[in-house]
Amino acid sequence: xxxxxxxxxxxxxxxxxxxxxxxxxxxxxxxxxxxxxxxxxxxxxxxxxxxxxxxxxxxxxxxxxxxxxxxxxxxxxxxxxxxxxxxxxxxxxxxxxxxxxxxxxxxxxxxxxxxxxxxxxxxxxxxxxxxxxxxxxxxxxxxxxxxxxxxxxxxxxxxxxxxxxxxxxxxxxxxxxxxxxxxxxxxxxxxxxxxxxxxxxxxxxxxxxxxxxxxxxxxxxxxxxxxxxxxxxxxxxxxxxxxxxxxxxxxxxxxxxxxxxxxxxxxxxxxxxxxxxxxxxxxxxxxxxxxxxxxxxxxxxxxxxxxxxxx
Length: 311
Prior knowledge:
CATH topology of the largest domain: Rossmann fold
Number of domains: 2
Largest sheet: 7 strands, parallel
Number of strands: 12
Structural class: alpha/beta
Distance between the termini: 17 Å
Strand content: 15-25%
Number of helices: 11
Order of helices and strands: EHEHEHEHEHHEHEEHEHEHEEH
């Protein structure tokens, strides 16, 4: 019996509109048993010789994984990024790969703004103080008077810029491609953005040339009270360099939704000026439903294209 693997950390089958069609064709469903991002070893254990299609999350679908998954013919990514998939190897093995690039935009942008607001007004720190019995008013910063540096001007970056402009902030943008679609955003070189921004927020996919884009050198260029936000991809920030910058008070604070290794257990947990969320940029109920519906439709389409589903 052919199998379909749902490797995302969670999945609502109510969003699989074509479920009855697939079940009538005799496909068996397998789900992520751990409720978190799977490791390479764990995904290999689940990709047995009967798995022909998968609805994927952010687990590493490396060259080795795709090569060993001999029966795999369709990967439908529930999300935007495909940096966790070795696309060249998938092409060589005849595996069709799909993603859902539009659905997460608003959710990721809104979480980014939530992190910026929380960092700027010390919401997390104030909450912890009050719970500890310490009533203390903390002086924050006004977004309308800040310079915001948006690194990456794709779907999410553009939406974040729109939201920040609505607050009255000055928005600087760095991207390899200069597309000024709206407003008064100013395109600048990367070092100028780091030097002038009060908040630097990352919105670009992970790639080898973006590995540790925010490293020790970049952190030393930034203002000593600047805030760093990453709701994009782990690997864009050198986490050890960020830890040192925060400990040495060369940076005002950071907000992170993604990490090089997840679940994160590293030294940044010891920093009281870092707020963290568990890779949940797209985890808004409405967005998640749309993403899962789209990913399922792509999966079914791919099965048909590969001749594995004939009705």
